[in-house]
Amino acid sequence: MYPDRKRAEELLKEAEGCNPGPWGDHSRTAAHCAEKIAAYSGMDPEKAYVLGLLHDIGRRFGKRHLGHVSDGYSYMMDLGYDDAARICLTHSFNERSIDGYVGNRDTTDEETALIVTKLKEAEFDDYDRLIQLCDAIAGAEGVMDIIDRMTDVKTRYGSYDQSKWDTNLMLKDYFEKRMNKDLYEAVDKAQYRPGEDRK
Description:
With 199 residues, this protein is an all-alpha fold.
């Protein structure tokens, strides 16, 4: 369960009003990429777009790191959007483990337990994998090369789990084979800019 496109865009706009920042356009870029890849992969482009748009919606509650995962999950569950809630949880853990999280562990014991428990319960599908990939190429200014994006994150946080890095590259390869198309061509890396879809 997830909202329609219009409602998802309203939710993101409301969230940016609560906590302005580049994460909003990062989310739009992820949504754009998810929609394009889904269309080439025989998946539902609308569903992919909405899930990509809302993957970081937990950031509406403030400048948190790991906390945005539990915040987003709880917020989407409260609204009855179970699929979107799962993506809020799974997008940061391409190996289904909290151990490889890149960023500060700023969750309470209760929030950490929620993440660990729900990760164990989650059954990853290609929408989880798709948003994990899109998160790894989505910049606030547009689509980034996956290596450049991961290097940027590594520079900002001082580390990047090697296994997570390798899994992102495997996801890129997986979807390129599924699309039979170059990833950056599929998502129009050279041309897409997130602000343009609001004009």
